[in-house]
Structure formats: C-alpha cells, structure tokens
Specification:
Elements: H1 34-56, H2 62-69, H3 73-101, H4 103-123, H5 127-141, H6 145-155, H7 161-190, H8 192-213, H9 219-227, H10 236-245, H11 247-278, H12 283-308, H13 315-335, H14 343-370, H15 376-405, H16 415-422, H17 426-444
Helix pairs in contact: 1-4, 1-5, 1-6, 1-7, 1-8, 3-4, 3-5, 3-15, 4-5, 4-6, 4-8, 6-7, 7-8, 7-12, 7-14, 10-15, 11-12, 11-13, 11-14, 11-15, 11-17, 12-14, 13-14, 14-15, 15-16
Length: 450
C-alpha cells in the first residue's frame, strides 16, 4: 500500500528533491494513533455527524416543504440541488483553506454556518429565504468531512487511514439515522419551526466541543514540523493544477461521482416521496425502509474499512462490485410490472444502496495515496466534489421528469411517473463507469508526487 505522506513525520536524513524544489515530507516515523488519536477523531467527527443531520433533514420533510412553500417537484428539488451545488463548489476552496489555516478553524466556521442556515430555514415561510438558508447549510456542510479526514491523517498511521475514513462515513450515517428516526417523527408532533430550530441548537454543543477539546495533531508534530526543512507554499492556482494533474486525483473524483449519488438522491430528497406517493406506504413504513438504508451503510462502512486496510488491490474490485449490484437492483425495481415492486425487492435495493457511500470513500483513498501532505486538503476537496455533482444532476433530472410525466394539475406523482423519472439514474452511472475505466490503468501505475 502506498504510504500516505500526509501522516508521516519528517526525517533528519535528506532525501531526493520533489518537483518544484520542495523538500520531502515523507518520514520514517508514523503518527502515534492510540486513545488520544481516537479522542481527537471523535471530537472532529461530531461536526460531521451534525452536518449529516442538517444535510439530510430535508429528505424527511420533502412533502411538508412542498406544502409549506407551495411548490412542485422540480421546484422542490431546487432546495437540495442548490445545497449540493454549494457543497460541491466549496470543496476546493475549503481544501485550500484547510491546507493554510488548519482543520480546527474550518470546523468551527462550518458549525456556525450549519446552525445559522438551519435556524433561518426553521423560521422561513417563503420559498426565497428558505432557498438561501439551504445554500448556507451546504456551505457549512462542505467544511466538515475533509477537515475530519485531515485531523485523522495527522493522528493515525497510514495503514489505518482507510479504516478511519470508512469509520468517519459510518459515524456520519449515525446523523442520517437521527434524521430518519427522530426528526421525521418530531416534525409531526412538534411542527416545522420547533423541529428545525432544535436541530440548529445542536450546533452550540458541537462548537463548544471543538473549541475546547480538539487538537489538530499530536504534541510532537509541531516540534517535528519546526525542525523540518520548510515546504514552499504554492500559489492557489498551482496547488489546484498539481492536484488535478495527478491521475489518482481524477480517478478518485470519478469513483466518488459514480458510486455515491444513488443513495444520496434517495436519502436527500426523493426516497420518502417515492415510497409514500409511488408505492403507497405510510410515512412510518417509508421511514422504516429508509432506516434500512442507513443501517446498511453503517454495516458496509465497517466491512469495507476492514477490507481496504489489507491493501490497495481491493479498491477497484470493490468499486465495480458495488456499481454492478446497484445498477442491477435498480433495473429490477424499475422493470417490475406496474411499477410496484414487492417489499423484498425494495429492501434489497436499499441494502445494496447502503454500500454506495462507503464505496465512494475509495475515491478519497486514491487522493490520499497520490498526493503529498501540503496539498492533501486540495486533492480531497476535488475528489469530494464528484458524488455531489452527480447527486445534483440526478436530483434535477428526476424532478424535471416527474413533472413532465405527470398530468397537469395532478395532486401527486404516480408509480409510473416515478419509474420513468428514476431511469435518469443511469445517465451519471454510465458516464462515471466509462471515465473510471479510462483512468484506472494510468492512475494505478503512479504513486504520490510532489
């Protein structure tokens, strides 16, 4: 497995010069790991759990939002599309910010934006202000995940990084579980404003934890960094260019693009309406099925973390297995006569889509293995755009097709309309698979460069 330069300490022995006359940051010593590392990771990951709660909160409130703001399917999709668009657009700026000011400050800023955006959404009674608030949430959300990964890279040895990345994704699914189980019920008992205001107030607790308890790196790391030869800070354009030139970065982006979006589309917006309107389930039954998606994601996070810790050879077989299984299950669901697949097939689909998020993290593993420490945040940001770009394309495509396939003035959308609209998922799925096949050989033949 390629040693991650982001988690190594500088050695006193001079080595070969990196491209651009930058001294090497590849050390023989590894970060210590242990209880202190898990504690630092736990504090950081609380921000990511909070971000996932905010991110997926609209997914259980789609029907209420359509009624509250008086919008149709394509307009409702605008909430999630803008949120995801802002998230994706912020990934490279956030990566650059992490490389320059450190993950702790970025996490604190992200927590403030998440809370402010959710509070504004709770109080909004019109479409315009609510739309702006979702954009603010997307901006805060963008600052959490890759910040936590940077903290983990400084605290854990390279061999543990794939496992820690998967555990980070698994912890995030805990936030999704809170949304599905708690928020969906609270909306019906306490109402819109009280429910979303309570979610916003969670940010004060997380902000205090990060501000008081998070250490970005082990105590000895600062001393080692001071003794090391300085690394030239590249201009922003050069930092982005060098990250993008790495085939591993581009491969990671397309892996993330292709694997993540099916479950994202279901969890962020269209899952609850599809199950309630398209399949005739009650909200309780639909919420139970969405919980299957979350629990499956947590299971695959543990499984893939263990598998990928054994070495990089399993990355591509795992990705292609997930893509094949997801494509096959959706084909069976969409081809089922009448548009009403049996319950066992819907459960199977959700179980398989639970592997999507964990498989997408393989893309970040490529970024980590193919980029040096001083631009790891930038490369991770580029990769992390992929799945959210595909999600945005799919959210919009499904919303537009639902409106096109439904009669004018219809009070809801039929099973046939949902079946036709969800066929759109195969557009990004096929595109991403082709790009992975094109980049695979080139990326796997190269390691990290400076």
């Amino acid at each position: 497995m390629t040693v991650d330069p982001a988690v190594t300490r500088p050695s006193a022995v001079p080595g070969p010069r990196l491209r651009g006359d930058q001294p090497p940051a590849a050390p023989d010593l590894q970060p210590p790991g242990g209880r202190a590392a898990w504690f630092a990771w736990g504090i950081g990951v609380s921000c990511y759990v909070l971000a996932v709660i905010h991110r997926t909160s609209l997914g259980v409130a789609g029907l209420e939002a359509a009624h509250r703001f008086g919008v149709d399917a394509s307009t409702l999709a605008t909430f999630s599309i803008l949120q995801v668009l802002v998230y994706a657009a912020m990934q490279v700026p956030v990566g650059l910010l992490i490389d320059r000011v450190g993950p702790r400050r970025v996490l604190l800023l992200g927590t403030v934006l998440l809370s402010a955006g959710q509070l504004a959404f709770a109080l909004s009674g019109a479409f315009g202000p609510a739309l702006v608030s979702r954009a603010v949430i997307g901006c805060g959300d963008a600052m959490t995940f890759i910040s936590v990964l940077r903290v983990a890279a400084r605290w854990f040895p390279a061999a543990k990084n794939p496992l820690v990345v998967q555990l980070t994704g698994l912890a995030g699914m805990g936030g999704n579980l809170i949304t599905t189980v708690v928020l969906s019920q609270t909306l019906h008992t306490e109402g819109w404003t009280a429910s979303f205001s309570a979610v916003a107030l969670l940010g004060t607790v997380v902000f205090a934890l990060v501000a008081l308890l998070l250490r970005e790196a082990p105590p000895g790391a600062a001393v080692a960094a001071a003794q090391a030869a300085p690394v030239r800070r590249a201009p922003i354009r050069e930092q982005i260019r060098d990250s993008w030139r790495q085939p591993g970065t581009r491969l990671g982006l397309w892996v993330h693009f292709t694997t993540q979006f099916p479950s994202n589309v279901f969890a962020l917006l269209w899952g609850m309406p599809y199950l309630v309107e398209g399949q005739g389930m009650s909200r309780g039954e639909a919420g139970g099925l969405l919980t299957v998606l979350v629990l499956s994601n947590m299971f695959f996070g543990l499984l893939f973390g263990r598998l990928l810790s054994r070495g990089p050879a399993l990355r591509m077989p795992l990705v292609f297995t997930v893509l094949a299984a997801t494509g096959t299950c959706w084909a069976l669901v969409l081809a089922w006569p009448g548009g009403h697949p049996p319950l066992w097939l819907l459960v199977l689909l959700l179980l398989v889509m639970g592997s999507n998020g964990s498989a997408s993290l393989v893309g970040l593993d490529y970024a980590r293995a193919h980029n040096p420490a001083h631009r790891l945040g930038t490369a991770s940001g580029i990769v992390n755009m992929g799945g959210f770009i595909a999600t945005m394309i799919s959210l919009l495509g499904i919303g537009v097709l639902l409106d096109l396939l439904s009669p004018a003035g219809a009070g809801g959308y039929s099973a046939q309309a949902y079946r036709g609209a969800f066929c759109w998922l195969y557009v990004p799925l096929v595109l991403g698979t082709v790009m992975i096949l094109r980049l695979r050989a080139k990326a796997e033949g190269r390691g990290a460069e400076g």
